[in-house]
Amino acid sequence: MDGVRAVGTDGGGERSAAASGRQRRGEIGKGERLADWTDGRLGVYGIAKANLRKVFPDHPSFMLGEISLYSFLILILTGVWLTLFFEPSSIEVEYNGSYEPLNGVLMTRAYESTLEISFDVRGGLLIRQIHHWAAVVFVAGMILHMMRVFFTGAFRKPRELNWVFGWTLLFLGIITGLTGYSLPDDLLSGTGLRFAQGAVLSVPIVGTYLSFFLFGGEFPGEDFIARLYPIHILLLPGIMLGLVTAHLILVFYHKHTQYPGPGRDQKSVVGMPFMPVYMAKAGGFFFLVFGVLAFMGAIATINPVWAFGPYRPDLVTTGAQPDWYLGFSEGLIRVMPGWEINAWGHTLALGVFIPFSLFPLIMMAILVYPFIEAWITGDKREHHILDRPRNVPVRTGLGAAWLSLYGVLLIGGGNDIVATHLHLSINAITWFVRIGFFVVPVATFIITKRICLGLQRRDRAKVLHGRETGIIKRLPHGEFVEVHEGLSQEQLFTLTQHEQEQPYEIGPLVDAGGVRRRVKPSQRLRAHLARAMFGPGTRIPKPTVEEYREVTSGDHHH
């Protein structure tokens, strides 16, 4: 790829010289003169020649990141439109509008303007719902994209920084969703804000100060909408836009990862050029995502604020759940026992503070995992070929365990909805989530690891004995066997290209001179973790060349 960049830079100079010669002879058009003027000052031609022919591999899972990107762009477009009509004011007014059931009801101007967008502005409800659905799809796409990156090991060197950018985008996306969902000041969003304010108050020592700072006084305060509004439409989207740009720049700077296969190694990429093939596909996919979101916004109601009514501190709506991506934190708080510590005239609400702290801690574990794995393996090489998840059972098990934990807590966050729809006891659901919080991730890890090892055994058998054809053959001595068909060289390479290095070990504790080595606690910890992740019982040895030749030398495939 470096060679391509060098050729592109030199080519830009040749183009400028040739264009200058044609310009002196009067053979150049206005458009080309403008392009030559721009290239002479910005070097656009050299950059374009080096990057527009950059090769991108073609695999459906790589489109998950693009779904997030396009949803983000749609969020910006629809959000700009909504700012033209939404009024972020806590001033109390009496509603007299198109939605007659609320006529004469006191509400904030923010809630009234949301109703006006929904019922009086042409296309307003459609844009509102596209905006909300895009937010849901944006976070879902980011989580799926990060899980694809995690399971395939795409976070390894040199892409650790891109993992940090992606994680930050996910975290900011969740916060942005919370602030946007709270702006209409309806009964549902107000209940969610009350929930958040209670969590902030549980922080020891500074909780009260943080709450007063965020809400401008006692909840609900008169300034919180005006404070959330610039955060939602300016601060957080601005930071996210910068991170998206940096993320895409790094994707271009690094070679794109690709799944293992013939012709694919750490130095070459098999796929399609960015221009025109990949760009045409990406452009079409953008309109496909936009069309799906518009269809969802047109036929599927989301956040019907008129059905909830304006927020009142003395009311709580039934089924008060935030968007699904916040169900993780809500489930933690809902199922936590109401533990408290009273000392020296102060109360520490552990029932709220512990789950409030667990959510960022679990998210932080996801953030630092690439660096922990790099420290355990000691691998400082660049990786551009992805792992097959089955070949790294412990990592795959950890990812599956996290997803199962998310699912269990999502049930806890909607325990009242689950109870009413399935006619179950809400106490039984709460205890299921409390026990499942500890049991389900462990069970998921064990099951996933065993599945991965089983798939490795199957791959080993396929390499040595070929693919089962379902054809039964009787041998001359009366034995019945199934005919196996040998794999192609392409399939053999894909199933055996992965590395199986020995995990890190401390080595002998006593050297040749009988002197006992000093081993740091960090080295012992690293050795234990390396054995747990890559030691015996975590992988099936792949077939060697000698084993393959021995099995295939005779009529072993029948």
Summarize the structure.
Helices cover 62% and strands 5% of the residues. The protein has 558 residues and is mainly alpha-helical. Strands 1-4 form a two-stranded antiparallel sheet. A two-stranded antiparallel ribbon has the order 2-3.
Describe the protein in words:
One of its GO terms (molecular function) is oxidoreductase activity. It is found in: Cell membrane. By secondary structure, the protein is mostly helical. It contains 20 helices and 8 strands. The strands form 4 sheets. The protein has a two-stranded antiparallel ribbon. A two-stranded antiparallel sheet has the order 2-3. The two termini are 46 Å apart.
Give me the side-by-side strand order of the main sheet.
1-4
Q: Name the beta content range.
A: 5-15%
Largest sheet: 2 strands, antiparallel
Order of helices and strands: HHHEHEEHHHHHHEHHHEEHHHHEEHHH
* Helix coverage percent: 55-70%
Strand elements, count: 8
User: How large is the radius of gyration?
Assistant: 30 Å
Structural class: mainly alpha
Number of contiguous helices: 20
Low-confidence region ranges: 1-14
Mean pLDDT: 87
The 3D shape can be described as: globular
The rounded distance between the terminal residues' Cα atoms is 46 Å
